[in-house]
């Protein structure tokens, strides 16, 4: 899709690179060197084939292979995503579980309403507010995510906290909500009643009987959001001037650097697919009904 | 725990309310009930009368909005309501256990059976191998074969009957003094139900537990319990020994409930079932006099103003001012039916050699094998058999929802029907309609009843405007709904009313055949009686034929002219209803019939079926029933599949035992059976 969009949309590649005043013959020669004058299907086939072998093509602007750009950027994005992920998953689940255990009490209302309100705010709004509060006003955290060269793990982490917070806020609501509804369903279930009526202590009931069944649907949500964490970073990375895959794609799109754009988006697609696959796998490990099939 | 001689359970003036829309609504009203040590007490009544609330109050597990508003519960001498968290936990662990409906949900789906059992022993300080041994012993006790392998399985890998055995094992693990069984066999097959009931009866002799047995099924309670209490609108209306209450009821409600059941082989052409008019008072309703007065034909002004006390009638109680006249309760529905002279006409449906094979993990699963039946206009074909016998698949084949294998044929009024619904003509589609078990899921929740029925009229009958309106009026009258019901959404209607809507919808296109797939299984007996009457009336009026699927043999018998008994997709017996029920019959039919608990406690020697229905992917060689057949005669059963041979005109049996021999073998049982 992206490949089609990139290659078919009006805009001659050679013309775009060489500028409006270049000689038509030079443009044609460049187009030929880049291979963009070949039939579309041939181009697509050779692009995919090369991509699978690790050759993501050559950037139009930088005149160098795309792969290092994409891989670096992906690495950076993953760092950011990992920080956000590590923050949001446990806290989101905990929030949902606490809300469900205090159903319809004030604590539940605070978590549910608060989670929902921050989720509906777009990340550029929360991002700017957070920058203003923590970066400008309190001066606790750096406002740019670009850490100094040779920064160690903790320094990098320190620089990543602020950018990951808007992501945290967006995802917290989703995850807490899923965890909450999963918990409510599991708490109301007959097997929880069985466990309570066995005379098991409340903690055992929750840990052994409720949590595992309650959190299964949440895992699916988390996995689909992992794709977002890697791919939906354009705004955040631009805002914090962070060299991730989101800002790479953004820059490439602005410069009509199609090889980088296409490689970046395909990479995100792959990450998304892998994350979903991993989630399905995890789900089936945790759910014996899927793992073992139905005998009856 | 202190052992006190006395009652196992005592409820005194127990009142429970549910908080709905900011108001406490009474569900149980000053309920007094005692269960002695080792006694089995049955609690019966329609849904919504508060049976389960009693159970949940005893274990203090009421829903969030429920609260005990008065009275006391004494369990083995302890006041349950005064227990603090830890003491309550100990009481649940040691003295009271509960088993409820739907064992598939009662077991934790993601823990192995073993784990779910051993954790009970761990509570008592027995861990590791000792706990495992105890768990295996417990599974042995509930007659589970190969307990060690069952321990390793997850609940979904067990059949419904096995799951319920496991649930019973869990409940009995700590040798409780009080066992509460809340509809423990509802939703199980008749043969499985019989097995589970046998097990409970057996365990009662081995263990000391007292039992509170809650069920809407009067026959089951009559089989299991010493004493029985009838609950109505949260009040006990009658109590006494099972024998007395069921054979000589003294409250009009009990009388009416018993009359709703098709008994003693009653059939549709012999009379309509009695019904109970009106509805149970809603929860929290303000009841001045007798709660049943509005539905009682005997009620006088006194009944409406003065709450009857529980009159003591010498060892039994009745909450009726006129208890001595209770049995004179006039019928709510006249019994008489217009005799219809049936002309011998051509079959409306003729099925020849129908097969359906599914591919299941590389094996052929023969869900329906070589089924041939025919059905005359205005007649009912009852399909009988355990789950997995192919009843529903057969219905789906007829309706064209799944295509049958090549070769067989379905003829509707002489014309061959296309295997798939898509290739059938509109006329053929509207000629065959279905009514499902659960009207809740069959009706679109977001549409009004008017919309639901009008749509069917537009689609099936092609009606518009005034013609549609006229037919709509006629249709809702014939299913006994009123204009008032048209504006509402399905969720505002009771289960019985919803089923009427579903029936109206099926009849919209003036069908020739209606498939009724367990249409009354989810309904209370009084509502069931009304729906059965309705189906019978519609049949005699419109000359429509039914394919009637039900696990309730009494219900099938009431409505059916022909019966087909299915086992592993094959017809084992086919014949006129009377011949199939009165016998001589196929050994499988015989076993099915003997599994049905009877109200009058004339327990004939029950024929037990061992094991479970074999997998349809690997049916046994020879006669498919030979692995469980109590009358197996020898090697021939294991090697040759018997043909479906005509035993007497119109009555065929698939068995190697000759008809005369079957008659001789089954003679004593047939004589014991009430006419």
UniProtKB/TrEMBL annotation, chain A:
How does the UniProt record describe the way this protein sits in the membrane? Multi-pass membrane protein
Cellular component per GO? plasma membrane
Could you name the domain of life of the organism this protein comes from? Bacteria
Query: In its UniProt entry, what is this protein called?
Result: Binding-protein-dependent transport systems inner membrane component
Keywords from the UniProt entry: Cell membrane, Membrane, Transmembrane, Transmembrane helix, Transport
Q: What is the lineage of its organism?
A: Bacteria, Pseudomonadati, Pseudomonadota, Alphaproteobacteria, Hyphomicrobiales
Task: Enumerate the InterPro entries for this protein.
Answer: MetI-like (IPR000515), MetI-like_sf (IPR035906)
UniProt subcellular location: Cell membrane
Report the source organism.
Mesorhizobium amorphae CCNWGS0123
UniProt record similarity statement: Belongs to the binding-protein-dependent transport system permease family.
State the Gene Ontology BP annotations: transmembrane transport
Q: Kindly indicate whether the keyword Cytoplasm belongs to this entry.
A: no
UniProtKB/TrEMBL annotation, chain B:
Enumerate the spans annotated as ABC transporter domain. Answer: 9-258, 349-593
Recorded hits in SMART domains, A to Z, give: AAA
Q: Which GO terms describe its biological process?
A: peptide transport; transmembrane transport
GO CC field: plasma membrane
Q: What CDD domains does the record tag this protein with?
A: ABC_NikE_OppD_transporters
Localization recorded for this chain is:
Cell inner membrane
User: Which PROSITE patterns does its entry note?
Assistant: ABC_TRANSPORTER_1, ABC_TRANSPORTER_2
In terms of InterPro entries, this protein maps to: AAA+_ATPase, ABC_Ni/Peptide_Import, ABC_transporter-like_ATP-bd, ABC_transporter-like_CS, Oligopep_ABC_C, P-loop_NTPase
Annotated keywords? ATP-binding, Cell membrane, Membrane, Nucleotide-binding, Transport
Q: Which GO molecular function entries does the Swiss-Prot or TrEMBL record give?
A: ATP binding; ATP hydrolysis activity
Query: What membrane topology is given?
Result: Peripheral membrane protein
| Family classification | Belongs to the ABC transporter superfamily.
The protein's name in its UniProt record: Oligopeptide/dipeptide ABC transporter ATPase
């Amino acid at each position: 899709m992206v490949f089609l969009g990139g290659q078919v949309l009006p805009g001659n590649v050679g013309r775009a690179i060489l500028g409006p005043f270049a000689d038509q013959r030079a443009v044609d020669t460049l187009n030929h060197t880049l291979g963009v004058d070949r039939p579309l299907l041939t181009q697509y086939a050779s692009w995919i084939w090369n991509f699978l072998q690790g050759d993501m093509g050559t950037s139009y602007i930088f005149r160098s292979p795309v792969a290092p750009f994409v891989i670096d950027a992906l690495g950076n994005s993953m760092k950011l995503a990992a920080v956000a992920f590590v923050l949001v998953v446990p806290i989101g689940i905990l929030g949902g579980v606490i809300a469900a255990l205090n159903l319809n009490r004030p604590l539940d209302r605070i978590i549910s309403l608060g989670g929902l309100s921050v989720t509906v705010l777009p990340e550029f709004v929360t991002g700017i507010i957070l920058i203003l509060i923590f970066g400008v006003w309190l001066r606790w955290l750096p406002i740019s995510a670009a850490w100094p060269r040779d920064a160690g793990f903790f320094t990098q982490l320190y620089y990543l906290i602020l950018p990951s917070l808007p992501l945290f806020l967006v995802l917290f609501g989703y995850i807490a909500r899923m965890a909450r509804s999963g918990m409510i369903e599991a708490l109301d279930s007959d097997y929880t009643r069985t466990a309570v009526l066995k005379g098991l202590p409340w903690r055992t009931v929750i840990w052994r009987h409720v949590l595992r069944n309650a959190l299964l649907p949440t895992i699916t949500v988390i996995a689909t959001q992992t794709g977002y964490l890697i791919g939906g970073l354009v705004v955040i990375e631009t805002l914090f001037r962070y060299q991730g895959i989101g800002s790479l794609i953004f820059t490439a799109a602005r410069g009509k650097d199609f090889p980088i754009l296409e490689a970046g988006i395909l990479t995100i697609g792959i990450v998304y697919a892998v994350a979903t696959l991993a989630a399905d796998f995890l789900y089936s490990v945790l759910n014996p009904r899927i793992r073992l099939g139905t005998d009856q | 725990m202190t052992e006190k001689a006395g009652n196992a359970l005592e409820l005194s003036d127990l009142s429970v309310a549910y908080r709905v829309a900011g108001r406490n609504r009474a569900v149980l009203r000053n309920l007094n009930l005692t269960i002695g040590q080792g006694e089995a007490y049955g609690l019966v009544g329609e849904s919504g009368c508060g049976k389960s609330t009693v159970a949940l109050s005893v274990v203090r597990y009421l829903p969030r909005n429920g609260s005990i508003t008065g009275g006391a519960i004494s369990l083995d001498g302890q006041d349950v309501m005064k227990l603090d968290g830890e003491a309550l936990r100990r009481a649940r662990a040691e003295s009271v256990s509960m088993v409820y409906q739907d064992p598939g949900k009662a077991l934790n789906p993601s823990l192995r059976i073993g784990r779910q059992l051993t954790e009970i022993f761990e509570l008592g300080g027995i861990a590791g191998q000792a706990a495992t041994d105890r768990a295996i012993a417990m599974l042995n006790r509930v007659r589970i074969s190969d307990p060690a392998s069952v321990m390793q399985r997850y609940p979904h890998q067990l059949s419904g009957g096995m799951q319920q055995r496991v649930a019973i094992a869990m409940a009995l693990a700590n040798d409780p003094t009080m066992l509460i069984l809340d509809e423990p066999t509802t939703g199980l097959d008749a043969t499985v139900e019989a097995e589970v009931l046998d097990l409970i009866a057996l365990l009662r002799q081995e263990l000391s537990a007292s039992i509170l047995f809650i069920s809407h099924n009067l026959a089951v309670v009559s089989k299991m319990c010493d004493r029985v209490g009838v609950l109505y609108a949260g009040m006990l209306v009658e109590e006494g020994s099972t024998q007395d209450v069921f054979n000589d009821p003294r409250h009009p409600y009990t009388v009416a409930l018993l009359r709703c059941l098709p008994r003693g082989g009653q059939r549709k052409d012999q009379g309509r079932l009695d019904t109970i008019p009106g509805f149970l008072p809603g929860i929290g309703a303000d009841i001045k006099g007798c709660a049943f007065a509005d539905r009682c034909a005997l009620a006088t002004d006194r009944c409406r103003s003065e709450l009857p006390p529980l009159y003591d009638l010498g060892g039994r109680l009745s909450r009726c001012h006129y208890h001595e006249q209770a049995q004179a309760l006039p019928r709510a529905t006249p019994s008489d039916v217009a005799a219809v002279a049936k002309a011998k006409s051509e079959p409306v449906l003729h099925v020849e050699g129908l097969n359906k094979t599914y591919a299941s993990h590389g094996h052929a699963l023969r869900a329906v094998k070589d089924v041939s039946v025919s059905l005359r206009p205005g007649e009912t074909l009852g399909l009988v058999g355990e789950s997995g016998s192919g009843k529903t698949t057969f219905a789906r084949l007829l309706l064209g929802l799944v295509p049958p294998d090549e070769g067989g044929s379905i003829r509707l009024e002489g014309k061959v029907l296309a295997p798939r619904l898509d290739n059938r003509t509109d006329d053929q589609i509207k000629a065959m309609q279905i009514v499902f078990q659960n009207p809740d899921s069959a009706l679109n929740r977001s549409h009004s009843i008017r919309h639901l029925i009008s749509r069917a009229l537009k689609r099936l009958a092609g009606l518009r405007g005034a013609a549609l309106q006229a037919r709509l009026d006629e249709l809702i009258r014939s299913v006994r709904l009123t204009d008032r019901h048209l504006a509402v959404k399905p969720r505002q209607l009771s289960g019985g009313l919803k089923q009427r809507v579903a029936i109206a919808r099926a009849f919209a296109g003036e069908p020739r055949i209606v498939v009724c797939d367990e249409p009354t299984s989810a309904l209370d007996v009084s509502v069931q009686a009304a729906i059965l009457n309705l189906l019978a009336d519609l049949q005699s009026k419109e000359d429509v034929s039914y394919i009637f699927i039900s696990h309730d043999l009494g219900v099938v018998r009431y409505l059916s002219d022909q019966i087909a008994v299915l086992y592993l997709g094959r017809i084992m017996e086919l014949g006129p209803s009377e011949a199939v029920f009165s016998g001589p019959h196929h050994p499988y039919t015989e076993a099915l019939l003997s599994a049905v608990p009877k109200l009058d406690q004339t327990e004939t020697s029950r024929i037990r079926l061992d094991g479970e229905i074999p997998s349809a992917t690997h049916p046994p060689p020879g006669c498919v029933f030979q692995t469980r057949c109590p009358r197996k005669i020898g090697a021939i059963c294991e090697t040759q599949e018997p043909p479906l041979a005509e035993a007497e005109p119109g009555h065929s049996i698939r068995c190697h035992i000759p008809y005369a021999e079957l008659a001789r073998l089954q003679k004593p049982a047939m004589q014991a059976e009430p006419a």
